[in-house]
């Protein structure tokens, strides 16, 4: 029989150790009563001669198996929806195209000549995920029948879309993006402003939720994160004559006189209001100077190489669009 320490360990882990055998069936088949006394006698008999370490390892193994089985019973495969926006990578340069046969609806094939921008895994009406086992059923419909899958998310904090208030809504849109160029500018209001805009103009602002974003890089990529420091912007404006020519205005003078978030906001608003023809000449002059003088000298910045690459890519895909 086990020593006292091992006996105590066995009894502490009795539920885990005997669960795979089936309580009542296991006890009765061995002639033990379905009671705590029968449980104790049965487990001591089963684990006779086991060391404490062996008992611990077995308990942990069975505990993990039980937890995994429970989780797997709640997992179902989705048929995710692709979005072929023009800024997506072409053909199999895109991860979306590579994943589509297994991640999309059964039989999905990627067009090797088309852009593949995003793969959506959510309940958004413009591309709802579906059950891969039955693609007639959307994820939203399945969640509506099984609300327990949403856990204890507070429904008042993550309400359903205004145009479909009875739907079961996942409060985020999980997606894969593959971009060959910079994305168009978008408005991402906070929660309070999103609710206000949705109430005032639901057709244009159809989502009452805010849009915080988290990006995880699956492959190397470049991204814009906010504005450069005010000092760096001021330095660029003073050292790159083409920028001053393009932005010549009272708002530029105000920023250079007193760099601040307020004067930068006004200057940036002025930039976005310009017509492409207004900035075509200064931009073309700057591009030519970068070619002749080299990136770092022309842009007078330590990261001039990166800035020049961004400039050239922007012109390649958007011409002299001010944005």
Oligomer type: single chain
Number of strands: 8
Q: What is the helix tally?
A: 15
Shape: elongated
Question: What is the typical, i.e. mean, pLDDT?
Answer: 78
The Rg value, from CA coordinates, equals 31 Å
**Low-pLDDT segments, ≥5 res:** 21-34
Helix-strand makeup class: mainly alpha
The ordered H/E elements are: HHHHHEEEHEEEEHEHHHHHHHH
Helix content: 40-55%
State the end-to-end distance: 79 Å
Q: Main beta sheet: strand number and arrangement?
A: 3 strands, antiparallel
Strands of the widest sheet, in order across it, are: 1-6-7
Strand share of the residues? 5-15%
Task: Give a description of the structure.
This protein is mostly helical. Helices cover 48% and strands 7% of the residues. The protein has 15 helices and eight strands. The protein has a three-stranded antiparallel beta sheet. The chain has a three-stranded antiparallel beta sheet with strand order 2-5-8, covered by helices on one side. Strand 6 and strand 7 form a beta hairpin. Helix 10 packs antiparallel against helix 13 and helix 11 runs antiparallel to helix 12. The radius of gyration is 31 Å and the shape is elongated.
């Amino acid at each position: 029989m086990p020593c006292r320490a091992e006996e105590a360990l066995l009894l502490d882990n009795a539920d885990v150790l005997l669960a795979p055998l089936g309580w009542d069936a296991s006890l009765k088949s061995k002639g033990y009563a379905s009671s705590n006394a029968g449980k104790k006698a049965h487990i001591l008999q089963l684990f006779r001669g086991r060391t404490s370490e062996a008992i611990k390892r077995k308990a942990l193994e069975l505990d993990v198996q039980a937890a995994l089985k429970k989780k797997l019973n709640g997992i179902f495969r989705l048929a995710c929806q692709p979005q072929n926006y023009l800024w997506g990578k072409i053909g199999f340069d895109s991860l979306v195209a590579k994943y589509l046969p297994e991640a999309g609806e059964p039989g999905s094939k990627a067009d090797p000549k088309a852009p593949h921008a995003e793969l959506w895994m959510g309940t958004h009406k413009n591309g709802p995920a579906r059950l891969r086992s039955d693609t007639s059923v959307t994820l939203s419909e399945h969640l509506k029948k099984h609300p327990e899958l949403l856990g204890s998310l507070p429904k008042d904090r993550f309400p359903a879309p205004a145009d479909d208030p009875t739907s079961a809504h996942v409060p985020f849109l999980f997606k894969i993006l593959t971009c060959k160029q910079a994305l168009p500018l978008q408005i991402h209001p906070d929660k309070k402003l999103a609710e206000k805009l949705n109430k005032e103009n639901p057709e244009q602002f159809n989502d009452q939720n805010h849009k915080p974003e988290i990006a995880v890089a699956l492959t190397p990529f470049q991204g814009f994160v906010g504005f450069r420091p005010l000092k760096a912007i001021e330095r660029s404006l003073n050292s790159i004559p083409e920028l001053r020519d393009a932005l010549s205005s009272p708002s530029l003078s105000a920023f250079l006189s007193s760099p601040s978030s307020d004067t930068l906001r006004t200057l940036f608003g002025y930039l976005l209001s310009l017509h492409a023809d207004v900035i075509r000449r200064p931009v073309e002059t700057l591009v030519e100077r970068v070619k002749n003088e080299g990136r770092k000298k022309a842009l007078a910045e330590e990261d001039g190489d990166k800035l020049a690459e961004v400039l050239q890519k922007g012109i390649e895909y958007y011409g002299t669009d001010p944005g």
